[in-house]
Amino acid sequence: MAITINGTEVPLPEDPRMSLAEFLRDGLHLTGTKIGCNQGGCGACTVLIDGQRVLSCLTLAVQAEGREVTTIEGLSSGDDLHPLQEAFIAHDGFQCGYCTPGQICAATAMLRELAEGMPSSVTGDLSRPAPLTAEEIRERMSGNLCRCGAHNGIIAAILQVAQEGAA
Amino acid sequence: MNPFTYRRATTAPEAAAAAALPGHRLLGGGTNLVDLMRKGVEHPETLIDVTGFSQQIELTPGGGLLIGGAVRNSALAAHPQVRRDYPLLSRAVLTGASAQIRNMATVAGNVMQRTRCTYFADPAASRCNKRVPGSGCDAQGGFTRYHAILGGSSACIATHPSDMCVALAALDATLHLLGPDGPRALPLSEFHRLPGDTPHLETELRPGEIITGVELPPPLPAMRSAYRKVRDRASYAFALVSVGACITVENGHFAEIRLAFGGIAHRPWRATRAEAALRSGPATPEAVEAALKLEFAEARPLDGNAFKLPLARRSAAALLAQLIGETA
């Protein structure tokens, strides 16, 4: 009965009512993961399970038993920032920063999805890998809201990292 | 949230047996059920996690596709065969929710998801015949922008929120069910019920039955299909109106036409009247216009959603015009 968080195995909470978001924050003090709406509407609680982006507020911690969870704390090591974190700073991809961990976790998985050729609803031709455009990134990041309105900076930051990765 | 116990089923028969027990509910991705539990709408005593089996997408002997009930929405939309042979399904799924939610949500859970009627989701302040049979409906006379214009009743005007199911209806999909009496199959178009005076009975699923998969018939040669969704923002929003269509045209006539709407009724609305009027007839804007008028003859729009009637007709007409153009 264990779950792996950022490479460390931890025992599951006893109460199955505990969401993964609550477990991360209150049980493990990994407060980088934020709870915004707590109903699957804002994306602030986005984490990765086995590399896939999911909403930790709508995931029961017990559902993640035996799986690997990566949070924003697991993306960087110390002051060595993840390229997306660097780019968010460079492009002013946030103001208050509350949605940022969710944005960056979502973007991490989104770049992999793009690289694997997964389509989105704005992909013109489903038979080919989607092109790397701001429009594609905007659609793919639509599950992460930013009330400060930093979306343009967010898209620019992700696009830069995507282009550097593709280069 | 009420206390509950959680366990994982490892096979479909095990899940079906558990589903027959009182207070037991099946848990897929949880994107709808966990939220409704937190809101006090759902109160299961035991959750049976059914994501550990029926995860495959396989070719059927007849050349169709069998999609396991636990396949995630994102995996379904990205599957090479679905993209190639059933692009309507990929398109519809990709317009639904967000990437995170599509990664979590299962195919069977999408079919079983409950209405997003805000009065249904508000036990503290709203009456709802679906939540508490006989208690009344506060949506009537309330904010009805997301409510039904077809097939509603004085007891309930809620809509089924799925995009995927609209595509499945237009694709003539069949649900594979497993219950105490063994397996059976049911067309998706016959699975969801209209509310009548029992809006709490939402599907034809019998006690102890589960959805194990969805079967798509083989794609028709030269079939054209598309999905159009109209919503309040460009992404990550439920449909005000959506429409999915599959057509084949021969010599300027509809050899086949299948048409379904979302966002306007208690179930994914298969437009059987319009289909019957158009099948074998001329593929012209005039014929389409007349058939859509027939389909919506019994529409009962409300003050807050009267815009949906012309919107649904115009969206369907535009979609069919686009598809007819592609076959020319």
Automatic annotation (TrEMBL), chain A:
<dbReference type="GO" id="GO:0046872">
    <property type="term" value="F:metal ion binding"/>
</dbReference>
<keyword id="KW-0560">Oxidoreductase</keyword>
<keyword id="KW-0408">Iron</keyword>
<dbReference type="InterPro" id="IPR036884">
    <property type="entry name" value="2Fe-2S-bd_dom_sf"/>
</dbReference>
<dbReference type="InterPro" id="IPR002888">
    <property type="entry name" value="2Fe-2S-bd"/>
</dbReference>
<keyword id="KW-0479">Metal-binding</keyword>
<keyword id="KW-0001">2Fe-2S</keyword>
<dbReference type="Pfam" id="PF01799">
    <property type="entry name" value="Fer2_2"/>
</dbReference>
<keyword id="KW-0411">Iron-sulfur</keyword>
<feature type="domain" description="2Fe-2S ferredoxin-type">
    <location>
        <begin position="1"/>
        <end position="75"/>
    </location>
</feature>
<dbReference type="Pfam" id="PF00111">
    <property type="entry name" value="Fer2"/>
</dbReference>
<dbReference type="InterPro" id="IPR006058">
    <property type="entry name" value="2Fe2S_fd_BS"/>
</dbReference>
<dbReference type="GO" id="GO:0051537">
    <property type="term" value="F:2 iron, 2 sulfur cluster binding"/>
</dbReference>
<dbReference type="InterPro" id="IPR012675">
    <property type="entry name" value="Beta-grasp_dom_sf"/>
</dbReference>
<protein>
    <submittedName>
        <fullName>2Fe-2S iron-sulfur cluster binding domain-containing protein</fullName>
    </submittedName>
</protein>
<dbReference type="InterPro" id="IPR052914">
    <property type="entry name" value="Aldehyde_Oxdr_Iron-Sulfur"/>
</dbReference>
<dbReference type="GO" id="GO:0016903">
    <property type="term" value="F:oxidoreductase activity, acting on the aldehyde or oxo group of donors"/>
</dbReference>
<dbReference type="InterPro" id="IPR001041">
    <property type="entry name" value="2Fe-2S_ferredoxin-type"/>
</dbReference>
<dbReference type="InterPro" id="IPR036010">
    <property type="entry name" value="2Fe-2S_ferredoxin-like_sf"/>
</dbReference>
Automatic annotation (TrEMBL), chain B:
<dbReference type="Pfam" id="PF03450">
    <property type="entry name" value="CO_deh_flav_C"/>
</dbReference>
<feature type="domain" description="FAD-binding PCMH-type">
    <location>
        <begin position="1"/>
        <end position="221"/>
    </location>
</feature>
<protein>
    <submittedName>
        <fullName>Xanthine dehydrogenase family protein subunit M</fullName>
    </submittedName>
</protein>
<dbReference type="InterPro" id="IPR005107">
    <property type="entry name" value="CO_DH_flav_C"/>
</dbReference>
<keyword id="KW-0285">Flavoprotein</keyword>
<keyword id="KW-0274">FAD</keyword>
<dbReference type="Pfam" id="PF00941">
    <property type="entry name" value="FAD_binding_5"/>
</dbReference>
<dbReference type="InterPro" id="IPR036683">
    <property type="entry name" value="CO_DH_flav_C_dom_sf"/>
</dbReference>
<dbReference type="InterPro" id="IPR016167">
    <property type="entry name" value="FAD-bd_PCMH_sub1"/>
</dbReference>
<dbReference type="InterPro" id="IPR016169">
    <property type="entry name" value="FAD-bd_PCMH_sub2"/>
</dbReference>
<dbReference type="InterPro" id="IPR016166">
    <property type="entry name" value="FAD-bd_PCMH"/>
</dbReference>
<dbReference type="InterPro" id="IPR036318">
    <property type="entry name" value="FAD-bd_PCMH-like_sf"/>
</dbReference>
<dbReference type="GO" id="GO:0071949">
    <property type="term" value="F:FAD binding"/>
</dbReference>
<dbReference type="InterPro" id="IPR002346">
    <property type="entry name" value="Mopterin_DH_FAD-bd"/>
</dbReference>
<dbReference type="GO" id="GO:0016491">
    <property type="term" value="F:oxidoreductase activity"/>
</dbReference>
<dbReference type="InterPro" id="IPR051312">
    <property type="entry name" value="Diverse_Substr_Oxidored"/>
</dbReference>
